[in-house]
Amino acid sequence: MLILIIPIGGPGAGKTTLSHKLMDGGSIAGVSKIDKVLTTCRDELFAQCKKVHSDWSQRKIRRYLFDKFVEFREDVAQWRTENPDKNLVVYLDSSNAQQGGRQYLIDEFQPDKVIFLNMRRCKETLMERVGQREEHPTFPRDTEEQRIIINKIMKGLEFADESDLTMGSTVLEKEIVEM
Fold first, then answer.
1. Which long-range contacts (CB under 8 A, 24 or more apart) does 42-48 make?
2. Does 34 score more than 90 pLDDT?
3. What is the 8-class DSSP label of residue 25?
4. Which of 84, 87, 93, 133 is deepest in the core (most CB within 10 A)?
5. Could you tell me how far CA 34 lies from the centroid of its own chain?
6. What is the pLDDT of residues 137-177, one digit of tens each?
């Protein structure tokens, strides 16, 4: 069974922290047994790309990130083919802010189950959490820049709701978990 976990939340909401807990053998609501966890983090990929290819344009970086996503999706498909009777959790560590983007992910992975994690945090909490970060691969250290980015992301954030559960797809099961 392929279980796709789509966390939805602003910077500092806890998406990456939860990803690390899952990778360390943690559990998640609605999943009784996890045989394998695969995760991808757009921020980490972006930072790696910028470090190695500092001269690349934004367009070239976006292409690189898309190619990495395709590779990840192929790795998921291969593991699933080789282990059809096992539970695979795929955790997509990104803000996943728009419903259309989430539907694209569902269409690409064709999971058996989708868990939308609404990681609702007030702006003050997000600011406090990002301010405590020692290092982050893409987020600025300057408080005013952080505030601008958080406001921009939160303005466009569409948390999962009933319409996510009824979006056209062949997924057997979908649920929304509030965190």
1. 42/93, 42/94, 43/16, 43/93, 43/94, 43/136, 43/137, 43/138, 43/139, 44/137, 46/137, 46/138, 47/137, 47/138, 48/137
2. no
3. T
4. 93
5. 18
6. 677 888 999 999 999 999 999 999 999 988 776 667 889 99
Decide if pLDDT at 29 tops 90: no
| This prediction's pTM | 0.89
Alpha carbon distance, N-terminus to C-terminus of the chain: 24
Euclidean distance between CA atoms 30 and 140, whole angstroms: 35
> Residue 157 and residue 29: Cα distance in Å, rounded?
23
Cα 100–chain centre separation: 14
Q: Compute the chain's Rg from CA coordinates.
A: 16
Superfamily of domain 2-178: P-loop containing nucleotide triphosphate hydrolases (3.40.50.300)
* Edge-to-edge strand list for the sheet holding 36-41: 36-41, 88-93, 2-8, 113-118, 173-178
Residue holding tokens 């559990």? 27
Phi-psi map region of 114: left, alpha, beta (phi>0 left; psi -120 to 50 alpha): beta
| Number of other residues whose CB lies within 10 A of the CB of residue 55 | 6
Which amino acid would we find at residue 24? D
Give residue limits of the domains in the chain: 2-178
> How buried is 153 (Cβ within 10 angstroms: 0-12 exposed, 13-18 middle, 19+ buried)?
middle
